[in-house]
Amino acid sequence: MADKGISPFKFQVDTWQKFENGYSGMVVAPTGFGKTFSVFLALITNFLNHPEKYKKGLQMIWITPLRSLSKDIAKAMQEAMQEVGLDWVVGVRNGDTDPKVRQQQVKNMPEILVVTPESLHLLLGQKDHARFFKEMKTIVVDEWHELLGSKRGVMVELGISQLTKYVPKLKIWGITATIGNLDDAMEVLIPYDIKKTKITAKEHKKIDILPVFPDEVEILPWAGHLGAKLADKIVPIILDSKSTIVFTNTRSQSEMWYQLLLNAYPDFAGQIAIHHSSIDAHLRIWIEENLSSGKLKAVVSTSSLDLGIDFKPVDTVIQVGSAKGVARFLQRAGRSGHSPFETSKIYCVPTHSLELIEVAALKEAVKQKVIEPRDPQVLCFDVLVQFLMTLAIGDGFYPKETHERIKKVYAFQEMTDEEWKDILDFLTIGGSVLKNYEEFHKIVIMDDGLYKVTSRKIAMLHRMNMGVIVSDAMLKVKFISGGYIGMVEEYFISKLKKDEKFILAGRVLEVAMIKDMTVYVRAAKGKAFAPSYLGGRLPLSANLGHFLREKLSGALDPKASEKELKFLHPLLINQEKNSHIPKEDEFLVELIKNREGYHLFMYPFEGRLVHEVMAALIAYRLSKWAPISFSMAMNDYGFELFSDKEIPLNEENLDKILTRENLMTDVISSINSAEMARRKFRDIAVISGMVIQNYAGKQRSNKSLQSSAGLIFKVLEDYNPNHFLVRQAYTEVFNVQLQEQRLMEAFKRIEKSKIILKFSNTFTPLSFPIKVDSLRQTLSSEGLDARIRRMLEQARKYK
Amino acid sequence: MNISTKNIKIQNEIFTLTNQRAAFWKKEKALILSDLHIGKTAHFRKNGIALANHIMKSDLERLSVLIEYFQPEKFIVVGDLLHAGDNSDVDEFCSWRNQYPDLQFYLIEGNHDKISKNLESKLCLNFKAELLEIDNFIFIHDFTKDELKFQITGHIHPGFVINSSVKNIKLPCFVVTENQLLLPAFSEFTGLDTKNLPKKGRFYIFTDSEIYEI
């Protein structure tokens, strides 16, 4: 490397030394500083120093979270090895790999194998797989921060644990960006009692945060509405840059912005592209290549480009809407100005004017270097069930020995023996010990006690449905004349009528017919819907929420440097006049009565998920006083309860509604009815194999096995309420959805705050975006029949 | 269990719709229902999806109560009696059926009813065909344009969404048009289709306790 004129960073040298001394560990470094080469070259150096210790075969497994990353990493490694004259081979193995190549790998493993967590598990589901790992020295998990908080992280933990069976001296290395809980991150990856170390790069990136202002402030900010006006402002930014990535938060938003940019500057045609996970993989690769080579002026993308290879020509990043969290914002900003000493430039484009406050908050957070932690997932029994099935379709497993190993895995350290038994029973007899389900067929216990899958059909079903990324059923979109465009969610298509138009991959399409999980379309022109995708609604992080409250509090009286707040002055005045701007020690509640009915707004600034829980809780507490139905809406700033009846709330009883007393008991009562667990169960059912996902094209043969997670949940709840997967659904609701701790903190804060109740006849600037950008659900204390009767009466009245 | 009923007049005949997913035709003393999907849970179990057969048991209990209530002579299933051929759930259904030796059992074949000769005798059917004609009515699994008479059908698993400013509720229903009576799926282990419903129909939605006309 030295002859290229590059001198290594200190963290790289440190990594090489620690590796040489037999350590496992974690490297913390920002993107663009050659973190790949820290661990990779450590292995190469070790080999060059001690070639006698190395025999032919697989030496290193490299896990990346993204398939699209694998190829480039493999290429970089291969080139580096060529430079030192090493004849090792780097192989890529994932869902995109040619079956022929995969077979070759099985016969003759490359020295380095780049995989995803899923493809590692598939490898462990092969017959006689132990032979692959005989010579293995180390496993490296790249972008560990991306995997850590998800069930894919648990997959990695389980995969590593299985590898330690074959390679007792395995060295485990993680590579991560800075997050708020680095020590936890290492403990989760390496819970074993071996030599381990954390190596942190001192280098960090400079970032310029530049807000884009609309021409004028709207007094009532309308979510998403600003787009059209701001496209004109973005065009010159793109034109002045070499190459730009425009980040949006959802796929529909990315489709919309692609259109907006084309409309604002038609010459962009052919120079800009759109990139998200529903677009055909070939097209995505083409886009990535052209972005790398500098042929594309701009790419509109979702989080699909958050990670990944360095797009060298990209010198500008534009963030549309809220980035939702500091870590994510930094990650995206880091996509521009990739070389270590360049400054990353990121423009923030608000989708409604209130988001400008968020820019001010982000600046403050970045200045103070407050980055969110990623909480690891624990006790994901669905993932464990899937993993055990994977072992069972391969060589099978012996429960006792496997249990010993699983207990060491971070995610399952708290698992009880009873839970383990439940899982084994579930896999072998279907139910609890007392109830042997007739005809149940999954894992068979062999004479020598080996747990194994004997049915080829069941093994195949499992292989096809492995993985923990659960999406809504996706349909392929093809031209009726041939040619594949991408995927849309079934949910969206089911709402479309024949001959209605929608947008995908930047094209306006008209539905011709739907057959065999494929939507056949014609090219069309004119107005069309952008597909809505259910995923991708990330909540605001607690850190950012904190800074938002702080900025809003002083918003009427901004510092000279806070351009964003100065700009928003008219809107803020309006809020203050019609209602109130909450100070840091205040909590604002608005009651608005208009033609539609009665609206209650509260503004905790705790993010969508927490608001969902709070809304259900407040609705529940109100409904204990009188029978009343609410619909709830929320955004990251606050939530709304809406009813057609008057809401019995006043200054006297407000603190009873907001009390911390009985908080969790009330929450439990309110969510039971709000069906959160049922929604959580959807993923669990798919991951644990209770619901067969219908994949495009493959769905047909399994049609008689189709059912919805909702139905299965109902069956289990009715007849087997203690089922460990049902319990997991509730636990997940508590840990992930409810964020019990964050909720407690929020109520503690509210308790200490001065509660301000304001009445109004019109929407206020704070309430309006919630009203418009709503994600609705309901809670009611009226009986179902009473409700139906009332709804029918109302329907008659309107007729 | 609460049986709530609603009488409707079709072609000068009275049919009683119930909130328990079945209809009764008084003149013929016929209990009419569709889409039982017997054997669905067993089929799932055979393929490694662990579900107990409680659901079928509760479906059959419900059916017993209906038989007790209406005292029918005929029992007409408008298709999809079975879900996926013979299995242990089917055995259980047969022993349930044998409690009612005097009940005439008519099956209109549905798309799921792949029934071998052996299976047919096991089920103790009195009648099996793709189509049954009684007076001015035709019983058939899915609606066909080829017949001009009034058709009583199943297949769709109809559901209806009630909208209000506050909440949408989805419920199973009967649908009646000028030439069709569409029955709800009898089994509770089925989904609801709110899209592919006949046009210009009247809907009879129901809950555990009530049935409503819309």
> What does the main sheet of chain B amount to?
8 strands, mixed
Outline of chain A: globular
Q: What is the typical, i.e. mean, pLDDT of chain A?
A: 85
CATH class of the largest domain in chain A: Alpha Beta
Percent helix of chain A, as a range, is 40-55%
Give the assembly state of these chains: heterodimer
* Number of discrete helical segments of chain A: 30
What is the strand arrangement across the widest sheet of chain A? Answer: 3-4-2-5-6-1-7
Specify the CATH class of chain B: Alpha Beta
Please name the CATH topology of the largest domain in chain A.
Answer: Rossmann fold
Determine the fraction of residues in helical runs of chain B and give it as a percent range.
Answer: 10-25%
**Count of helical regions of chain B:** 4
Mean pLDDT of chain B: 91
Can you offer a commentary on this structure?
By secondary structure, chain A is an alpha/beta fold. Chain A contains 30 helices and 26 strands. Chain A has 5 domains: 2-200, 3-Layer(aba) Sandwich (Rossmann fold), CATH 3.40.50; 206-368, P-loop containing nucleotide triphosphate hydrolases (Rossmann fold, 3-Layer(aba) Sandwich), CATH 3.40.50.300; 393-471, no CATH class; 474-523, no CATH class; 579-679 and 732-794, no CATH class. In chain A, strands 3-4-2-5-6-1-7 form a 7-stranded parallel β-sheet, sandwiched between helices. Chain A is globular and about 80 Å long. Mean pLDDT of chain A is 85; it is low at 695-701. The longest helix of chain B has 17 residues, at 54-70. In chain B, strands 8, 9, 10, 11, 12, 13, 14 and 15 form an 8-stranded mixed β-sheet that branches. The model of chain B has no long low-confidence stretch (mean pLDDT 91). Chain B has 214 residues and is an alpha/beta fold. Chain B has one domain (5-213): Purple Acid Phosphatase, chain A, domain 2.
